[in-house]
Design goal:
Blueprint (H helix, E strand, L loop, with lengths): L1 H9 L3 H18 L4 H18 L1 H6 L6 H21 L2 H17 L3 H19 L6 H22 L11 H21 L6 H11 L1 H19 L8 H14 L1 H5 L8 H9 L1 H24 L27 H15 L26 H19 L9 H20 L12 H4 L20 H5 L5 H25 L5 H32 L1 H30 L16 H16 L17 E4 L10 H7 L6 E4 L1 H5 L7
Parallel strand pairs: 1-2
Helix pairs in contact: 1-2, 2-3, 2-5, 3-16, 3-18, 5-6, 6-11, 7-9, 7-17, 8-9, 9-15, 9-17, 15-17, 15-18, 17-18, 21-22, 21-23, 22-23
């Protein structure tokens, strides 16, 4: 639909075919700004940069395929559901409905996305109902049943009634994976009900908003699947045809035929920052989550209605010139960049009560992102069709997780301009803020006093990155010397030369340990992690440049699979030049310039389509008027008509 609109407005061509997907890529970057309440300002900017320069996302949002559109709809679904639960604004519900309809009308990948998010949100809803106190028992029983069925069916090969080569054990295994991540998340998220109260309020008090959202969903679905009401049966086909394709011939045919670890390879080569951030975030979130049940033992969560207030995420205005408004603006910025909201999704820590300290719950948003990332890897690795463009559906949550992690690491580092032992207000006499209102934008206030009292802070923080880089270089040189294959005197020389960088390595380790005593371990580890992230970011930027701009259609990159060779357009130009020369005396009103009426014979191969030139010649020769498609046998034994 969008491609047809581009052709209608600008004519047909390669650039016009790519235009909708390129615009979707731009929209993907711009949409990251709406995630400020969950990533913070810095995190949202980092997410925009990662989504804009990610090798796989930038590469495949330049394709005339559905993938660039699909990732935008997925991000809008995430924004719509979380922001609506968060604020209750109808616009976010409409965005959710539109993105769901557009995803359904774009590609059958929505079955996988809905399966993951559906199970995760279902577990969350159950946790907020009266069944919440039995959530561990329910999930434990379901996981046990899935494990038992998986073992039995994988041993006895019990097939499903639909599809070829599909077994029940595979389906319950995938269900078990999603349930396990949902179960792990349930230990860490805040049990205060927010999802159920929000939608109960929608049904009871804002039913008009609900009907408008459903109208958007159904209306877009009918327009797309009925081809603007020219094919009414499409409304029925859209409900099952895509699923039948995925669970039927496609799964058995296994288009692509790649090993199960194929996406681990692609993610490691092109999206290493997302993998490392997701693994680190999972360890941080789930290990902290497993300790929370002991903290909240004996405490009964009081169900609370969804908040009626909304977050103020409006932009700063030029009219805010007074001291009070500047103070208010600082407070708002600090609230936007905080990962802990007062909206029920991500609660601020409360003071200790008679029943014990309040557990430090983890944000629901990042828990869902981590579960989405790993579940997507497992499900796409199981699917029979393994193509490189599907990696972007894992790169999207991976980059969002990386932005969240990097944003939190940045907030651990206090401002470098603060003198040791001096508060930010005393250090800046010109500041109009008061000690009560100066929280320093984008930084948790509790991190600063301890680090400021440790002594000469700024230059010590700046020493960590070069020391870490020198440490890595020295370690690499030492290992290269120690593991050299040279023998004899040269081998002994390499061995001795390896001790020098090893001493440098030890000195760097000692220096880092010494620095950590002054700037704290947390700051040292945060700066080290950010330094390594910059190194991985530079590597990803290089991969982006090579894959997207240097050799995007040469089969030396793992992202290149079915792309047209750069020779094909040149061959088409030769054919066009030959056609113009051959038809100089046969021009007509239908072919004024000549070159389009010359007959061209192409192979359509056999009935299976293997070896056919239809792709990509149907596109490149689309302007020629006398294309004759012949089977392989006819071309091998041509009739006199075509001699």
């Amino acid at each position: 639909m969008f491609t047809a609109l581009a052709y209608f407005l600008f004519g047909d061509g390669d650039a016009q075919a790519r235009l909708p997907m390129a615009l979707a890529g731009i929209g993907l970057v711009a949409s990251a700004w709406m995630l400020r309440p969950y990533l913070g300002r810095r995190g949202a900017l980092i997410a925009a940069v990662l989504l804009g320069f990610s090798p796989s996302l930038l590469y495949f949002t330049r394709f005339a395929r559905h993938d660039g559109l699909m990732v935008l709809w997925e991000l809008w679904m995430v924004i719509g559901i979380f922001r609506y639960i968060d604020t209750g604004k109808p616009g976010y519900l409409y965005l959710l409905a539109a993105s769901i309809a557009l995803a359904i009308g774009t590609h059958e990948l929505y079955y996988i996305v809905f399966f993951i998010f559906g199970l995760l949100m279902l577990v969350r809803i159950i946790a907020e109902t009266t069944w919440g106190k039995y959530i561990n028992m329910v999930l434990g029983g379901l996981v046990g049943i899935c494990a038992a069925i998986g073992i039995l069916t994988m041993v006895f090969y019990v097939p499903l009634p639909v599809g070829e080569g599909l077994y029940l054990g595979e389906k319950v295994f995938l269900t078990m994976v999603v349930l396990l991540f949902a179960w792990a998340s349930s230990f860490a998220w805040d049990p205060t009900p927010v999802v159920v109260p929000r939608f109960v309020h929608l049904w009871r008090n804002e039913r008009t908003t609900l009907w408008i959202a459903l109208s958007i969903l159904v209306g877009l679905y009918l327009v797309m699947y009925t081809t603007f009401f020219a094919y009414p049966r499409g409304a029925i086909d859209g409900l099952y045809a895509g699923l039948a394709y995925w669970l039927g011939s496609q799964q058995e045919f296994a288009r692509g035929d790649q090993p199960w670890y194929y996406y681990f390879l692609l993610l490691g080569v092109y999206e290493p920052l997302g993998i490392l951030a997701a693994v680190g975030a999972a360890i941080y979130l789930y290990t902290r989550g497993f300790s929370l049940p002991w903290l909240r033992f004996g405490r009964k969560a009081e169900p609370q209605p969804a908040p009626e207030t909304t977050l103020d995420v409006t932009a700063d205005t030029d009219e805010e010139t007074t001291t009070d408004t500047r103070r208010t603006r600082r407070k708002r910025r600090h609230t936007e960049d905080s990962d802990e909201h007062t909206n029920g999704l991500e609660m601020e820590p409360e003071p200790a009560t008679a029943s014990g300290p309040r557990p430090n719950y983890m944000p629901l948003f990042i828990l869902i992102m981590v579960a989405w990332y790993f579940c997507a890897i497992v499900i796409f690795s199981w699917a029979g069709e393994k193509m490189p463009w599907l990696v972007i559906h894992m790169a999207l949550p991976g980059n969002l997780i990386a932005a969240w992690v990097l944003g939190r690491l940045l907030r651990l580092i206090p401002p470098l301009g603060v003198r040791p032992g001096v508060s930010p207000i005393e250090n800046n006499p010109a500041s109009d803020a008061t000690p009560e209102t100066s929280k320093l934008d984008d930084a948790p206030p509790e991190e600063f006093p301890s680090t400021q009292r440790e002594g000469g802070f700024s230059w010590r923080v700046l020493m960590v990155p070069p020391l870490l880089l020198l440490l890595l270089i020295a370690l690499g040189v030492a290992l290269s010397r120690f593991y050299s294959d040279a023998g004899g005197q040269e081998g002994q020389s390499n061995l001795l030369q390896g001790f020098v960088p090893l001493l440098v390595f030890g000195g760097c380790v000692y220096a880092l340990l010494t620095l950590s005593q002054y700037i704290t371990w947390r700051v040292t580890l945060a700066v080290s992690a950010l330094t390594l992230s910059l190194l991985f970011g530079a590597y990803m930027l290089r991969s982006t440049w090579i894959a997207v701009y240097q050799q995007p259609d040469v089969a030396v990159e793992l992202l290149v699979y079915t792309q047209t060779s750069p020779d094909v357009p040149r061959y088409v130009d030769y054919v066009r030049e030959l056609a113009v020369n051959q038809t100089r005396n046969y021009r007509s009103a239908d072919d004024v310039t000549g070159g389009l009426t010359m007959p061209i014979i192409l192979s359509s191969s056999d009935s299976s389509g293997e070896g056919s030139l239809a792709w990509p010649m149907q596109w490149y020769l689309r302007d020629f008027q006398r294309l004759n498609w012949k089977g392989g046998d006819e071309i091998r034994s041509p009739s006199p008509t075509y001699l």
